[in-house]
Amino acid sequence: MATNYKLKKVKAGRDHIADNFHNALSLSDMAQHAHVSPYHFLRVFKDTYGETPNEFLIRLRVAHAKKLLITKNHSVSEVCEHVGYSSLGSFSSLFLKQTGMAPTLYRRKLWALSAEPFCFPAQAIPACYARHFLGK
């Protein structure tokens, strides 16, 4: 019973991160929404999800940035700000670490695959995923 209660609390904190990833978030902010201490939230989050709250936040921000870089014609600086980073250098280095390429290169490579501007290229969608949704 106590474990279920802890899971509900950590899920509330995780949901808060997911809903507010574009804002500046501290560990204290995250833990406050889970109604636990920051250090307890960090430990329980890591034990439950296998990553720290900050790693989860970075992963969400980079995933959203990837989508924006492909589908919008915003500058990398605008994308950086939109996903919650104030430093272009920090954003670029975290993006590089997560994806293996710089944001500009990521955009150029995927746009080169698409025949339509600002459209996610069909070649970048795994065949098994496309088959599932197209029914083929």
Summarize the structure.
By secondary structure, this protein is mostly helical. It contains 8 helices and no strands.
Provide structural commentary.
This protein has 136 residues and is mainly α. The protein is built from eight helices and no strands. The chain has helices at residues 2-19, 27-34, 38-49, 53-71, 76-82, 88-99, 103-113, 127-134. The mean pLDDT is 85.
Tags for this model:
single chain, 136 residues, mainly alpha, 0% strand
Shape: elongated
Strand content: under 5%
Instruction: List the uncertain runs.
Output: none
Describe the main β-sheet briefly. Answer: none
Strand tally is 0
Q: Which structural category fits the helices and strands?
A: mainly alpha
Order of helices and strands: HHHHHHHH
Task: Please estimate the helix content.
Answer: 55-70%
H/I helix tally: 8
- Rg, alpha carbons: 18 Å
Distance between the termini: 45 Å
> Overall mean pLDDT score?
85
Topology of this protein?
Elements lengths: L1 H18 L7 H8 L3 H12 L3 H19 L4 H7 L5 H12 L3 H11 L13 H8 L2
Helix pairs in contact: 1-2, 1-3, 2-3, 4-7
